[in-house]
Amino acid sequence: MSEIPLNKFEKEKVVIRMYVEGRTIREIAKEAHLAFKDISKITKSYDKKIRFQQSNQKENNPSNQLKKPSISSQAFQLFREGKKLTDVAIELEIPDRKVMKLSAQFLKLERMYECYEFYQVFQYEIPQLLAISSFIRRNKINISNISNIMKEAQDVNNLQLYRSRIANEIERLKQIIKNRDYEIKPLPNNNWSYPLYHF
Fold it and tell me: For the chain, which residues make up each domain, given as ranges?
C-alpha cells in the first residue's frame, strides 16, 4: 500500500520540525521529499518570523524598556562631572532649594558631607584658616599643641588689650593733670621777709 503524499503545508511543518531538532538538510530533504533550495527557503522564512516575534516581545516588555534616570540621579551625575550648583539647576530646571538638598545628599554619599558643613559654617573665614594652616605646616607645629598655642594667643591678645587700656588711661590722666595746671595760678613773685626768731 503506497503512502499518501504530503501536501505543501504538511511538508513545511516537517521541514520546520526537523530544522528545529537540528537535523541536516539531507535528512530533511529525504523526509519531506523537497529540494535543498525549497528547504532553504522555508527555513529562512521561519528564522525571519522568529526574529520578528522576539523583537516584538522585547519592545512590548516594560522591563526591557530604558527608563529615564530620576532627577536625583541626573543631578548626582552632573555633580560628579564637576558642574556648579547653578549649572545643575539650569540644566535640570529645578529650584535652588532642591539643588542645595541634592548637593548635600551627593556630598554625603561621597563621604564629603563634613566638608560641606565646614564650608557652610566657615565660608567667610577660609582665607584666615588657610593662613593658619600654612603657618602650622611652615613651622612644623604638632597638631596636638594647637589648643595650647591658641590659649597662649588668647592670653597675648588679652595682654595687648590690657596694655591698650592702660595706655589710654595714662593719656587720660595726663590730660587731666595738664588741664589742672592751667587752673592753678602761679603765686606773685614778692620778696617775702621772714622774721628771725632767736631762741
Answer: 8-62, 71-123, 150-183
Read off the pLDDT band of 1 (50, 70, 90): very low
29's CB contacts (< 8 A; 6+ apart) are: 35, 36, 39
Three-state DSSP class for 54?
A: helix
Give the chain's largest Cα–Cα span: 190
Q: Which three-class secondary structure state does DSSP give residue 162?
A: helix
> Other CB atoms closer than 10 Å to residue 146's CB: what's the count?
12
Helix axes 85-92, 96-109, angle to 10 degrees: 120
Residues 119, 124, 127, 129: what is their CA dihedral angle, to the nearest 10 degrees?
Answer: -60
**Residue 15 and residue 43 in contact, taking contact as beta carbons nearer than 8 Å:** yes
For residue range 112-171, list pLDDT tens digits in order: 666 767 766 777 787 887 887 788 788 877 766 666 766 776 776 777 777 888 888 888
CA distance 178 to 187: 18
Burial class (CB in 10 A: 0-12, 13-18, 19+), 31: middle
